[in-house]
Amino acid sequence: MTGNIRNALIIGGGVAGPALAMALQKAGIDSVVYEAYPGTADGKGGGLSIAPNGMEALRVIDAAEPVRALGKPMTGIVLQDWKGRPLGEFGNPPGVAPMLFMFRHEVYRALLDEAARRGIRIEAGKRLVDAVETADGVTARFADGTEAAGDILVGADGIRSVVRTLIDPAAPEPAYTGLISFGALIPRPGVPSTGGKMNMPFGKKGFFGYQVFDDDTAVWFVNLPNPEPMTLAQVRQTPAEEWLRRLPPLYAEDHTPAADLISRTAPDELIVVGPMEKMPRVPKWSRGRLVLVGDSVHAPSSSSGQGASLAVESAVELARCLRDLPYDEAFSAYEKLRRPRVEKVIAATDRKNSAKAAGPVMRVVNAWAIKAFARMAKPEKMAWVFHNRIDWDAPA
Ligand SMILES: Cc1cc2nc3c(=O)[nH]c(=O)nc-3n(C[C@H](O)[C@H](O)[C@H](O)COP(=O)(O)OP(=O)(O)OC[C@H]3O[C@@H](n4cnc5c(N)ncnc54)[C@H](O)[C@@H]3O)c2cc1C
User: Fold this and answer.
1) Distance, CA 22 to ligand 1 centroid (Å)?
2) Which site in 138, 140, 308, 380 is 20 to 30 Å from 44, CA atoms measured?
3) Is 14 in the pocket of ligand 1 (CB under 6 A)?
4) For 295-353, how does the pLDDT look when each residue is reduced to its tens digit (9 = 90+)?
5) Are 181 and 302 in contact (CB under 8 A)?
6) Which atom in ligand 1 lies closest to the alpha carbon of residue 221?
7) What is the pLDDT of residue 352?
8) 37 CB less than 6 Å from ligand 1?
9) Is the per-residue pLDDT at 266 higher than 50?
């Protein structure tokens, strides 16, 4: 059997969108990427990691190198208590390349540029508002009043997906994990290099992560328990200067560089990531000629370090299915291939987040929560996440 579509409308120019466009091109299917924003989605955005499984999926579509060039390797993670004492350390499972840390907007730019270099059309400033199926295709409607027609429409439009609601008006909304996040990349951290490792102290009042690089820069991030849900806009209503005043005292009792690193951060270096969200189980991945890929259907929350990597994996698998099967069968085959894996990653991340969001329990350093976290984080327990090979040449 072979695929029966010639072209696709891809909604969203984040990670999944351009990755899918390149994978479809490899499968002999044309596509256009429609991105809501004039440039990329978020001028600044947080840091994210691309895991070895994400790099492997990018390799399948010959797009690993432009992304690798952006990454700072993270060879291990050291879990610490509030005194900075190591509780457990885990490196990568044997034979697996390190995670790569990079900035979200840089990954977007690299993937969009690479797709454009391959002749894929990227239409910026096109916000999808509706999609209507016709007898032999689908028409996308954009906020600027324009339309576009294609054989199928793919929602690579992120965690607040419009396409998800078009597929199923009763689809779940993103769920708040009880944590709000901040981060920064700062020069001259005044702390020695952490030797390629990310330190993660469970402070008395909040979780902290930092890595000091050999070039005398450092990244840090905060996942702060905040039981009341807050939107990104609400978190951003408080100016960066004020957050930089409020955060260090929360880490003042900890014997870690957390308070110092935050204090050395300039307001324009602070990245307000906002509420940490995840997608609950999405019952319908497709309807008719519409299908979802990436965060729109399986956002595991940033604690997983897997959002972007799973998005690329799904994009490549969807293209492989569309290459080999009529689109309706391809959508079913794709969901069957991907749903068990992504839901397993999301479940594992939920357990991590509940350890981080332990709230008042954190104040006395909940040894149980941290040990549970450390147990989950052992390399051999993570191997199944990182070892994912896509056999592009195998029929779907
Ligand atoms: C604000 C924010 C901060 C994040 N921070 C982190 C982090 O710190 N660490 C981490 O690991 N992960 C983070 N993530 C998640 C990570 O970026 C995603 O897991 C990964 O990028 C998944 O890729 P995606 O393409 O599926 O979705 P996204 O990267 O979110 O891309 C979706 C794209 O679709 C576009 N779009 C949305 N709606 C429409 C529409 N109606 N019409 C047209 N285009 C549309 C968006 O502008 C965006 O470019 C963050 C996500 C967000 C939204």
Assistant:
1) 18
2) 140
3) yes
4) 999 998 777 789 999 999 999 999 999 999 999 999 999 999 999 999 999 888 776 65
5) yes
6) 8
7) 65
8) yes
9) yes
- Which helix (H) or strand (E) segment holds residue 291: the answer is strand 290-292
Burial class (CB in 10 A: 0-12, 13-18, 19+), 349: buried
Q: What share of the chain is helix, strand, coil (3-state, %, to 5)?
A: 35, 25, 35
Pair 212, 193: CB distance under 8 Å: yes
45 CB near ligand 1 (under 6 Å): yes
Q: Which of 9, 10, 15 to mutate to test the pocket of ligand 1 (most atoms within 8 A of CB)?
A: 15
The answer to whether 115 and 18 have CB atoms below 8 angstroms apart is: yes
Q: What is the Å distance from ligand 1's center to 295 Cα?
A: 7
Helices (H) and strands (E) in the chain, counts: 14, 19
The CATH class, in words, for 7-71+99-174+278-355 is: alpha beta
d(CA 295, CA 157): 8
Q: Candidates 104, 181, 273: which one to mutate for ligand 1, based on the most atoms within 8 Å of Cβ?
A: 104
Residues 6+ apart with CB under 8 A from 257: 189, 191, 210
Q: If you take atom 37 of ligand 1, which residue's CA is the nearest one?
A: 157
Domain range summary for the chain, segments of one domain joined by +:
7-71+99-174+278-355
- pLDDT range class, residue 374, cuts 50, 70, 90: low
